[in-house]
Amino acid sequence: MKLRITRAIGLSKFSPRWVKVICLRLTKNDIERSLNALLATIDESELTPEQVVTNGAKLIHPSG
Q: What is the pTM of this model?
């Protein structure tokens, strides 16, 4: 619901630029929280060497 309202306000041509910036930041924070929650559920012991980048970042294999 919050994302719908944020999108409606942020994409409106009548919204001032500063409101759009706030909506963009709120959306970015929601995406970041969701991604962090997803990454926290990854079991590193199940990753293959191809799925682990040399800098330690985790990748999700395209096949699942």
A: 0.60
